[in-house]
Design a protein that fits this description.
Layout: H1 7-15, H2 20-32, H3 39-52, H4 57-65, H5 72-83, H6 89-100, H7 107-120, H8 123-135, H9 142-154, H10 158-166, H11 173-185, H12 189-202, H13 208-221, H14 224-236, H15 243-255, H16 259-268, H17 274-286, H18 290-302, H19 309-322, H20 325-337, H21 345-357, H22 361-369, H23 377-390, H24 393-406, H25 411-423, H26 427-440, E1 448-453, E2 456-461, H27 470-486, H28 502-509, H29 513-524, E3 531-535, H30 541-553, E4 558-561, E5 566-570, E6 573-574
Parallel strand pairs: 3-4
Antiparallel strand pairs: 1-2, 1-3, 4-5, 5-6
Helix pairs in contact: 1-3, 3-4, 3-5, 4-5, 5-6, 5-7, 6-7, 7-8, 7-9, 8-9, 9-10, 9-11, 10-11, 11-12, 11-13, 12-13, 13-14, 13-15, 15-16, 15-17, 16-17, 17-18, 17-19, 18-19, 19-20, 19-21, 20-21, 21-22, 21-23, 22-23, 23-24, 23-25, 24-25, 25-26, 27-29
């Protein structure tokens, strides 16, 4: 380095640094030339080490500490550096120190401090920042308000986020995007879709992350037509389908029951990463197409893409849903021997599920007992379900007590255990368990089913009488029941786990939410088009038999996505081959 460099040359040298060693050499030159108190040069030095060269914010901190009177740019830079580092809490500390030193924060300061709070999910500190923003009169700055929306959305406070959004004078595309993504991430699918419709009405251009979020929301409700419209919007606007958007669209089509469209998107991605491969494999898995999932897994390995932990979860799930016991066991063994991936609880869960679905209850029990990691309550619940299905009553009783001891606060556990006792006719035990549930747990999750008609999602619960077309729906339910009787259907009431008489049990089955949704679908979809239903719980045995018959009697394809997998009903047959 030359003995002396002017300011312009030093700034150029700092900007050209690609390694911290080069930056240190320039810093040393500045020390020798007595330039360390040159605020402009030192600001650039701090910016380079804190922001441009990630991972070196501690070096920027040391430089900052040597400055007698740091200017606002230096304060903002060090706060920014820590906000994107592994120690975002230090950004909040610097923000407070800045105020104590009498330096007034500006919109950049608040933006960086809010990013740190967002990363840490620090709602209280974020609300303090909100108060300061209002106090200094920056509550009209779009950049700052977007940071507040992101904070509240990340902390699950969508009402606060919506208040900020609604008060914005001119929300930009980032504001809309953050709100839609926030609703989607917080499970408020209806609100996300409503806001997306507003985006179209306002003619705001959606970015990739907004569209990926909307695709995810369509997945939740199985809203295929709306998902197709989103895909069409992407094509019409000339938006490039990158890995993020492509993977979201693949997941949407898979979860909406359209594997052909998912495969088209997959094949259109020129350079697929492990997430894209794993998503497509998972799609085949949930549709019970195990052989195709394994073929794709082989293609993935041939492409030199290394599978990861998520890939193996998808592949093992595919084996489980298709009854591929030997293949599943073989693939599980290769996780460590070939890929050095240590199996996690979800992989052991897939194996337990694989054995349980095949009726290998003793084998599954032994597998759980010899696992090298502690089995969780999910594995025991899977085994309990198999005990109930295959008549292992003594083992079921033992596991029931174990489950309630392991997790006494989950309503799902009490429901499962009480259902096991009900199937055995032990009504006094059912009463005891349900009494415990009332005392120790929140309310259990109610079953619902949804259907998309003309871009609108209609959601039904058992015996739903809230819908404005309830009379037509119940008329169709009666017609369905009559036609089913004519073809010889006799209700299987084994899954109606209440101490009531047989006639009441049959009536209760006829009002299950999936049947209500199918009745609505028969009323509002043209002959020849599939009826697509999403159910949040596992479909019961009688409903499964009934839907097979409905598909034959009404000559309709019916696609049902329950909590476990897809069922494609055609001409009286289900794609799961009654293996679910």
């Amino acid at each position: 380095m030359k003995p002396m460099m002017d300011q312009v040359s030093l700034v150029a040298a700092i900007k050209s640094c690609t390694r911290v060693r080069e930056l240190r050499a320039i810093h040393a030159h500045m020390v020798r030339a007595n330039l360390t108190q040159d605020t402009f040069l030192t600001s650039k030095l701090i910016e380079s080490s804190a922001v441009t060269l990630p991972g070196h914010v501690s070096y920027a901190h040391r430089i900052f500490s040597s400055i007698l009177h740091p200017n606002p740019f230096m304060w903002n830079t060090i706060i920014r550096g820590y906000s994107i580092s592994d120690s975002p809490v230090t950004a909040i500390t610097f923000y407070r120190d800045m105020s104590l030193c009498g330096i007034s924060p500006n919109s950049y300061t608040f933006g960086f401090a809010l990013k740190a709070c967002c990363k840490l999910l620090r709602l209280f500190e974020g609300q303090e920042l909100h108060s300061q923003i209002v106090k200094v009169g920056l509550d009209f700055e779009t950049r700052v308000l977007n940071g507040l929306i992101k904070l509240y959305a990340s902390c699950g406070c969508m009402e606060y986020a919506r208040d900020v959004f609604d008060e914005m004078p001119e929300p930009d595309s980032a504001s809309w995007s953050t709100m839609v993504s926030g609703y989607a991430q917080n499970g408020q699918a209806v609100e996300a879709l409503e806001l997306f419709r507003e985006i179209q009405a306002e003619d705001v251009r959606s970015d990739v992350f907004t569209l990926a979020s909307v695709a995810g929301v369509c997945s939740e409700f199985g809203a295929l037509e709306l998902g197709k419209w989103v895909h069409s919007y992407i094509d019409n606007k000339g938006i490039k389908i990158d890995l993020v958007l492509g993977t979201a669209l693949m997941g949407m089509y898979s979860k909406c029951g359209s594997l052909d469209n998912a495969l088209k998107v997959f094949e259109g991605i020129p350079e697929r990463d492990v997430t894209a491969w794993s998503t497509m494999i998972a799609g085949y898995a949930v549709h019970g197409q195990g052989e195709k999932a394994l073929q794709l897994f082989d293609a993935m390995k041939s492409s030199k893409t290394m599978p990861n932990s998520v890939t193996f979860t998808s592949v093992l799930s595919a084996c489980s849903h298709s009854g591929l016991i030997e293949k599943g066991h073989q693939i599980f063994s290769t996780m460590w021997t070939e890929y050095k991936i240590t199996p996690q609880i979800e992989h052991y869960g897939c194996m337990v599920d694989l054995f349980c679905r095949a009726g290998m209850v003793d084998h599954a029990h032994k597998f759980i007992q010899t696992m090298p990691i502690e089995p969780n309550v999910v594995l025991w619940r899977t085994l309990l379900g198999a005990c109930k299905a295959h008549g292992y009553n003594d083992l079921a009783d033992h596991i029931s007590r174990k489950i309630l001891k392991l997790d006494p606060t989950s309503p799902d556990n009490y429901v499962l255990v009480s259902n096991v006792y009900a199937s055995l006719g032990r009504w006094s035990s059912v009463s005891q368990v349900r009494s415990l549930m009332k005392d120790k747990t929140p309310k259990k999750q109610h079953g619902w089913s949804s259907i998309e008609i003309n871009f609108m999602v209609h959601k039904f619960i058992m015996g739903d009488e809230s819908h404005p077309e309830r009379e037509k729906i119940y008329g169709m339910l009666q017609q369905m029941a009559t036609k089913l009787k004519l073809v010889g259907h006799v209700a299987s009431t084994v899954d109606v786990l209440h101490d009531i008489d047989e006639e009441e049990k049959q009536y209760a089955l006829g009002l299950h939410s999936e049947r209500v949704a199918i009745a609505y679908g028969l009323l509002h979809t043209p002959n020849g088009l599939p009826i697509r239903i999403v159910k949040n719980l596992r479909v019961c045995r009688d409903c499964h038999e009934v839907i097979k018959l409905i598909s034959e009697v009404y000559n309709r394809e019916i696609i049902v996505r329950d909590r476990v997998r897809f069922h494609h009903f055609r001409e009286g047959v289900c794609s799961c081959n009654d293996y679910w």
